[in-house]
Amino acid sequence: xxKPIIYNLSNHxxxxxxxxGDIRIHGKSSTIFIASSTNFTSWLIKPYAxxxxxxxxxxxxNFTIKLEATDAIPHCTQNLNHIPAxxxxxKGHALNLFHAFADVLFPLFLTCHxxxxxIIFLVTNHYSPWTSRYRAILQKLSxxxxxxxxxxxxxxxxxxxxxxxxxxxxxxxxxxESRNFxxxxxxxLIRSAYSLERExxxxxxGDRPRLLIISREGSxxxxxxxxxxxxxxxxxxxxxxxxxxxxxxxxLTAQHVNSFDVLLGVxxxxxxxxxxLPRNAVxxxxxxxxxxxxxxxxxxxxxVSMKLRYxxxxxxxxxxxxxxxxxxxxxxxxxxxxxxEKHNHHFRTVYLDxxxxxxxxxxxxxxLLRALEFVRA
Length: 377
Known about the structure:
The chain is α/β, with parallel strands linked by helices. The chain has 12 helices and 15 strands. The chain has helices at residues 54-57, 97-112, 128-133, 135-141, 183-193, 225-235, 250-258, 292-305, 331-334, 336-342, 344-352, 361-376, and strands at residues 5-8, 17-26, 31-35, 41-45, 63-68, 78-79, 85-89, 120-124, 147-148, 155-163, 210-214, 238-242, 262-266, 282-287, 309-314. The strands form 2 sheets. Strands 1, 2, 3, 4, 5, 6, 7, 8, 9 and 10 form a 10-stranded mixed sheet that branches. A 5-stranded parallel sheet has the order 12-11-13-14-15, with helices on both faces. Strand 7 (85-89), helix 2 and strand 8 form a beta-alpha-beta unit. The longest helix has 16 residues, at 97-112. The radius of gyration is 23 Å and the shape is globular. The model has no long low-confidence stretch (mean pLDDT 92).
């Protein structure tokens, strides 16, 4: 018997193993068996790309990986040795647009694109509406139907399997990690999946630049949204205000966003729609008080990597609904970074879940004019 080859590609973000050998998976028992003549052992893995988020990570199914003798592991029910497979979870944050792309779809692209669609997806914590929503992208990455592996009572056999997804942490990747793939390559796949017409901005048409304002409900609302809309129209933009809802097809959403030159919104998952913008379009992120690091990691760095022009407007305390909620010298106002480091749940409650913004119109006008310069250049 050949000794199995196991590559441990895990890091602080996610656990990932690439295995070659006699591999058998029984989905209902969440067990992966690897035939071996020595080193009989076992360990657990949660095949989700963000193990740093302990609250969400806890809900992801544990898989047991067992190295055992060939005669001790279950017999094959379905032999798929000619096709590699990848095991990953569709749970965690995957219903949130940003995390669907940053934690599942982009890592899946980085993990599987080299197989040229000849790979099978074995999905634990499968949620069929999620699969349906992103089917166009999944079909660009695999020519096979998705397996809801938790319901699979057969023993599926493979000669190559990847367990978990490697992730760069957000919608960007360092060149040394890329294996010749990048967020630009992923955007090209998205353009193909959703038949997006505009690859880049062409301002020679003479039309008014189109501005999409992402409207939010709940937290981080843009309280003077109507005034900003009117000001932008007065500056020369054709303005559309839209609340992105999950029950609209991704194809229609992507094609709609692709028709705009500028995407404007308060920091949040809606800005993930920048993936559908044409190259050289503008992303204008309004950053609520205390959220500078989140804004940089989630949207600024990725936007630049996508060849978008990036602008930001940092909300001061005077423009935030947090003003007046606490004593003047409280850490919420003076040291947001300290609260982030010490009390992550409290940080989220204060700055993400209970803050609305109202940018100063005179100051914000300068940012809009800069966006206008970019698209007319």
